[in-house]
Amino acid sequence: MANDPVSDQDERPDPQVGEPEHAAVGLPGVYWSMKYAMNEMGPKRSLQTLLKMNHIDGFDCPSCAWPDPDRRKAAEFCENGAKAVAWEATRKRVDRDFFAEHSIKDLLAHDDHWLEHQGRLTEPMYLPAGATHYEPIAWEDAFRLVADRLRAMPSPDRAIFYTSGRASNEAAFVYQLLARKLGTNNMPDCSNMCHESSGTALTQTLGVGKGTVTYDDIAYQSRLILIAGQNPGTNHPRMLTALEDAKKRGAKIVSINPLPEAGLVKFRNPQTPRGISGVGTKIADKHLSVRLGGDQALFAGLNKLLVERGAIDADFIARHTDGFEVAAEAWAALEWPQIEALSGISRAEIEALADDVEAHDRVIVCWAMGLTQHKNSVPTIREVASFLLLRGNIGRPGAGAAPIRGHSNVQGDRTMGIWEKMPDSFLDAIRDEFGFEPPREHGFDSVKAVGAMRDGKADVFLALGGNFPVAISDTEVATEAMSRVGLTVGIQTKLNRSHLHTGREALILPCLGRTERDVTAAGDQFVTVEDSMSMVHSSRGRLIPGSPHLKSEVQIICGIADALWGSTPELDWKTLSTDYATIRKHIEHVVPGFHAFEERVKHPGGFQLPNGARDSLSFETETGKARITANPLETLEVPAGHLLLQTLRSHDQFNTTIYGYDDRYRGIKQGRNVVFVNPEDITALGLADGQRVDLVSVTDDGRERRLPGLRVVSYPTTAGCAATYYPEANVLVPLDSVASESNTPTSKSIVVRLEPASA
Ligand code: SF4
């Protein structure tokens, strides 16, 4: 473990490529957690943070949204959680001297890892129109500047309020209040780019846009767990502990993924002798190497078989669902050659999976981006819902739908009203609570927001966290679109590329992190978050803030609002920014399921939000029944000599945050410019392992999108399917290449050709 992935150098020319690993975590997981912690925080801060992370009286991990078990261990975090905390609680600082030294032009020459690795932002910075360097600005001046620009707009719909999934419930609630008081629903969020397809399909079929299982269902109740399009070893690592507990009980696990991910092969739990010894626990009993976007055909084939075999719960179907007859007819008409061609899975393998389903009466389907970022994602997830409903695997222990969220509070933000199309019931509650009429016209989601900025229809863009122009698809179009905005405002903890792809003028408003104490005139404040299983719990930082000039997300948002309108008894921004209990009182009145919020969130572990499908088999769908649907199979044409590409994270990455250059589970060290290709495809394309190629995406708009200089890595991915990292590969995804109904960028199925490298 000689080379240091966190050194300050920019991109490395040639990655080292070795054998992929066949087990996750183990002592290396402990080693790298501690390496990052010591490098960034040092021993004292590491102890102060890591032993409080995900604990009842501690702070919530700012990384993924995996829930916490009732019984927590002293070290209740994973390697990527440790990296996220080390990254936030670093001792390095980006202050006014840094900005004086580095022009925007200089900073643009560095890569994403280098930018964030410079440290924590320390004070508000302003980039005047035409300037080359950011300069300090006082908070009050910054708030006034934003207020002036918002006030000067001819229409409130020329403002865009973006949210990344790290924002707390309290920050998200006052943020949506600011936008709606201003008069717009332009509230794109990172969910638009990740689980929007899940929310859309589950709302249509089960009447709730969230998962229907709990931690205990997976760890202690399930009998068969299908994990589709998800890589928990890197993106939800503590899930491996729950899967290990399920295995100990004899549950069966099936991995459905174009890539054989190490975390689904074996888990070496470093908190057990079995794990430390290296023996570990075999996770998946079976791996199905599905084709990208082929999950729809796989689940349709499964449903076809279950109906043909009569292996269905007729009583459940009759009492709780509708649509069965029509769906059964459609499945009966499906032809196996089409199912096999689209899924990449043989009939025999699907038959065997149907046997597994018949043999297990409690089935859970877990999924992530591998299902949500395709053109056919919404029909795919409807097919998954049908699969669960056919055998009554909804609303009982150990059974159900489990979309696993990738960002710590992305689900909570949506619950708080961060959505461009909130239902009238929510908007009515806002009117009744605050005495103003909120806008009703739906606003921009993330893709539409870029379109609006590109077309000169936006004057002010605010980002509550995140790295929007890098995270969204069609990078060149997105960064160019940002430059057409009047003012861009970034509320973040660290320097990132969104601070360099700005509007004509820009502000950086640095906020407190999750690990930091938030003390106001009303005393120590805590915030709340909601995990993938709808558990709402508190988070209370412990560290002294990285700079005395930092403000919390809530204080920044309320500061802007107060500068815009001042505080009134109906809407007292000053009090909201000082005592978050007052925000929670409003949430209690406006958001369903938050009664006695202040009292219940103080219970150890918090409380679970109601979920009709899970709790009482009540389905708030159009018909009041759960909807069984069969969805016409969609074919994505891949011309000869082309491959289907997916973008994915390395193991040293969280969304657009690049912690380092290793992806050790896939055998990659010291570099990110690689493309994983099936060995037969390499031969068929006349290429060679190790050869440098350019990826060129083939698009309807005739525009050539190119990602140059990638090293071909021979890898056991599904034939015809390749993979490389985002955000670099976002340049290949056209803005209008989106999933039907959810408008999510199709980052998991991009048709590309591989050309010998141009340079
Ligand atoms: S599993 Fe997710 S939430 Fe838990 S510590 Fe790891 S990154 Fe954080």
- Second CATH tier, the architecture of the largest domain: 3-Layer(aba) Sandwich
CATH class of the largest domain: Alpha Beta
Task: Tell me the strand order in the biggest sheet.
Answer: 6-5-18-17-16-7
How much is the radius of gyration in Å?
Answer: 25 Å
State the major sheet: 6 strands, mixed
Percentage of helical residues?
Answer: 25-40%
**Structural class by SSE content:** alpha/beta
- Determine the N-to-C terminus distance: 32 Å
Q: For this entry, what is the oligomeric state of its chains?
A: single chain
CATH topology of the largest domain: Rossmann fold
* Low-pLDDT segments, ≥5 res: 1-9
Morphology = globular
Number of helices: 31
| Mean pLDDT across residues | 96
Q: Kindly estimate the percentage of residues that lie in beta strands according to DSSP.
A: 15-25%
Number of strands: 33
Query: What is the count of structural domains?
Result: 3
Bound molecule kinds, no repeats = iron/sulfur cluster
Give the arrangement of secondary structure elements.
Elements: E1 16-17, E2 24-25, H1 26-40, H2 42-50, H3 79-88, E3 93-94, H4 96-101, H5 104-108, H6 112-116, E4 120-121, E5 125-127, E6 135-136, H7 139-151, E7 159-163, H8 169-182, H9 196-206, H10 215-221, E8 224-228, H11 232-235, H12 239-248, E9 252-256, E10 266-268, H13 273-276, E11 281-282, E12 286-288, H14 295-309, H15 314-320, E13 321-322, H16 324-333, H17 336-343, H18 347-359, E14 363-367, H19 369-372, H20 377-390, E15 400-403, H21 410-415, H22 424-434, H23 446-454, E16 460-464, H24 468-471, H25 475-482, E17 487-491, E18 505-508, E19 518-520, E20 523-525, E21 527-530, E22 535-539, H26 553-565, H27 573-578, H28 580-590, H29 597-600, E23 607-608, H30 612-616, E24 626-627, E25 643-648, E26 653-654, E27 657-658, E28 668-669, E29 674-677, H31 679-684, E30 692-697, E31 705-714, E32 721-725, E33 750-756
Parallel strand pairs: 2-10, 3-4, 7-16, 8-9, 8-14, 9-12, 13-24, 14-15, 16-17, 17-18, 25-32, 29-31
Antiparallel strand pairs: 1-28, 5-6, 5-18, 10-11, 19-20, 21-22, 22-23, 25-33, 26-27, 30-31, 30-33
Bound molecules: iron/sulfur cluster.
